[in-house]
Write a structure and sequence with these properties.
Length: 391
């Protein structure tokens, strides 16, 4: 008896000190891949925290096995580890588009559900069967920037033949957003006079600004990451390039750090992105308003864009999918395709309805929300479009 008692005490102490813990037999283990270190860590941590808030609020009997991944290769390897070692039927991720493209492709090959909560590059859900995404695509954000320019800014200036320039990073994120901008601008009769593509790791901001000045553009649509986006905007201001409107997108112009680094130089700039937690009540149904209040309490602080995106993705999986699935990848996939959340019921003002089997973008949320915000004071961005979201 004494030996058994000592053994029990040792096991309790081991658990308290963070030793190996046995997962309850009825608990579902899911994977989670996010950049928790490196240049994308702030957004990755916020998005994962949003997922965790949704898990806490849903009371789902789920444990997340989290892996930090900062490169596409690491994200792909993380999928293998989660499937081979932990036998997860689904993996959440990934905040960054370059990470998600490889991770989602690997999960697709392994027939494991990949649940994208934040990355926007179009190819993530292109011709996939096991990949689901709750946020808007990059091309949708690009189209939002063009639509806002066409419907709001161009009439303000009475432009008969507006000229636009696209500045974009040369990866899957930049080409997804920029491609959406080019396609919609063409159909609306807006002349895209130049597309300036650059590497975010090797560029000259002054050269980009000089080329933009020579283009004599009315509007700039910018698809950058934070460091290069700030540098390029500083170069544009230093050259006194005259623009009637600048609309950036996610991963730079919408981020609080963009406003912090630029101060008053950010005022007047627009950004097309996903909504944050300061959403207008008019964009939410009563159910959406109630859920947002609960989400904020569970999150424990202001919810920036990645946190809201993570919560929406997590809540959809934990609350709307898993209760209707048996725990296998196939059952999760089938349950996801049946989800039908009305617009306004999600905390970002959108809803959830995934494109069905046979669609080119099968697994993409067709009710994802997107907005345009504007830096209106130092450190203060307000949503200005669409009207229901305007704050």
């Amino acid at each position: 008896m004494r030996r058994r008692a000592l053994l029990l005490v040792a096991l309790v102490l081991l658990a308290a000190c963070g030793g190996t813990q046995t997962v309850p037999s009825d608990q579902l283990v899911l994977g989670a891949i996010y950049p928790l270190s490196g240049p994308q860590s702030e957004g990755g941590r916020q998005e994962l925290a949003g997922v965790r808030a949704a898990l806490s609020l849903s009371h789902a009997n789920v444990r997340l096995q989290v892996i930090d991944a900062t490169t596409p290769q690491a994200a792909s390897a993380a999928v293998d580890r989660l499937v081979d070692t932990y036998h997860v039927p689904a993996i959440l991720g990934t905040y960054g588009s370059t990470l998600s493209v490889t991770a989602a492709a690997r999960a697709e090959r392994l027939k494991t559900v990949y649940w994208e909560t934040g990355a926007v590059a179009d190819p993530i859900t292109d011709q996939r069967h096991y990949v689901f995404r709750t946020v808007a695509t990059g091309s949708a954000l690009g189209r939002m920037a063009v639509t806002f320019s066409h419907d709001v800014l161009m009439p303000r200036y009475g432009l008969a033949q507006p000229r636009a320039v696209i500045v974009r990073v040369n990866d899957v994120y930049g080409r997804s957003v920029g491609g959406g901008e080019q396609d919609l601008a063409r159909s609306m009769g807006v002349d895209v006079v130049d597309v300036i593509e650059y590497s975010p790791t090797a560029y000259d901001a002054s050269v980009i600004a000089a080329r933009l000045a020579a283009d004599r553009a009315d509007f700039l649509w910018d698809v950058s990451y934070l460091d290069d986006g700030v540098a390029i905007w500083k170069a544009i201001l230093a050259r006194h390039v005259a623009l009637k409107g600048t609309i950036g997108t996610s991963s730079a112009f919408c981020m609080p750090a963009f406003g912090e680094r630029l101060g008053s130089d950010a005022i007047g700039v627009y950004a097309a992105d996903k909504p944050d937690g300061d959403i207008a009540a008019a964009a939410l149904s009563p159910a959406g308003q109630k859920l947002l209040a609960e989400a904020k309490a569970a999150y424990g602080g202001p919810m920036e864009i990645p946190a809201v995106a993570g919560f929406v993705g997590g809540w959809t999986l934990f609350h709307d999918v898993l209760p209707n699935a048996s725990g296998s990848s196939e059952s999760i996939r089938a349950a996801a395709l049946r989800v039908d959340v009305p617009v306004g019921d999600s905390i970002n003002g959108g809803g959830v309805k995934f494109a069905g089997a046979g669609a080119l973008d099968e697994g993409q949320n067709t009710r994802a929300a997107a907005v345009v915000g504007q830096w209106q004071a130092v450190g203060l961005m307000r949503v200005v479009y669409p009207a229901a979201y305007a704050s």
